Amino acid sequence: MLLKIGELASRTGITVRTLHHYDKIGLLHPSARSAAAYRLYNRNDVAQLHRIQALRGLDLSLAEIAELLQGEGTGLQELIDQQVRGLEQQMLQTRELHRRLQSLSELLRSQDQPNLDYWLTTLSLMSSFGKYFSKSDLAILKQRKQSTQGNAELMMEPVIAAVRSLMDQGIASNDTRAVALSVRWHKIMNVAMAEDPRLFVKIEEMTRNELAVQALTGVDGGMLDYLTHATAEQRYQIYRKYLSPAELEHFRRRFFEDARAWIALFAAIRQQMELGNTVETVAVQDLLARWSTLSLRAWGDQASTLAKVRLAHENEAALSLGPGLSPELLAYVQQGLQYRDQISANNKKPDASDQPEQDTHHE
């Protein structure tokens, strides 16, 4: 039985125009033509058309379908795998869009008719968060926000405004007002960031790099530096109860220069702790080597000075107020440093084989 093009179109639901196009590009030629030159399709042509439609259902292009049909199915697995990966990516993008729209909807409900600039800045901010934070990071931040009912953000707004006011007035970062604000800043950040130094590292990088974040929060790199100097002063006032002026001579400058390196180190150590790695592992010992280097820059190599620093940290909870230096992390580090010292001491012990042999020969 031969079908004219109109009959084939009506039976399959495919337009005549589409069948003409398939013929033109060589995807489906009619097997015969009538005396009047009408296209005629036989059973094999209909079967081929069904194969084409099945492959179209996989969202393959006509060119890909033509290659598959000409090759009798070779490469089908690879193409299907590509389609699966593409669909997975689309699903991820759809979920991300859904998350952003949900967040924006919640934000809009909490605001009184925000203007277009605010909407656009907010959307840009949401995009910035996606660049720096993983899904698990964002889940932690959202959970913290819900658990505090958004109080951290509300508490931070007047702190940011007060810090900006001091900066605009030219008030030095070692002023008691700046120091007090830095303490409030760190307390609020600890709540919002779950005291996780890995989140501190990311939030600081984002704040320094993203104009949308700076526009919406009022915090920029200059303010972060100002707060770091103020934090150095807060630490200095505590350490001076334990250390001599000579021992503290370079502290303020070193604290500012190495502040970001310390936070990054806290983050890396926290990661090792969560992985369950013991202090004896190579990765942890490599991090502790960096710790020793930074400590040497801050305090020198005098054992008496380092002992005073340890005593200060044992007695002064305020020294753990910064981004991520929790008592648990400090205890982990001290355990690792003790192991490091033990290994170093063992390596310095002379080997028995290196001892000179006693002369047992008697005249």
Automatic annotation (TrEMBL):
Which Pfam families has this protein been placed in? MerR_1
The GO molecular function terms of this record are: DNA binding; DNA-binding transcription factor activity
Task: List membrane-spanning regions.
Answer: none
Annotated ranges, domain HTH merR-type: 2-71
Q: Which SMART domains match?
A: HTH_MERR (SM00422)
Q: Where is the composition biased (Basic and acidic residues)?
A: 348-363
Keyword annotations of the record: DNA-binding
User: Annotated region Disordered: where?
Assistant: 344-363
Query: What is the official name of this protein in its record?
Result: MerR family transcriptional regulator
Source organism of the structure: Undibacterium parvum
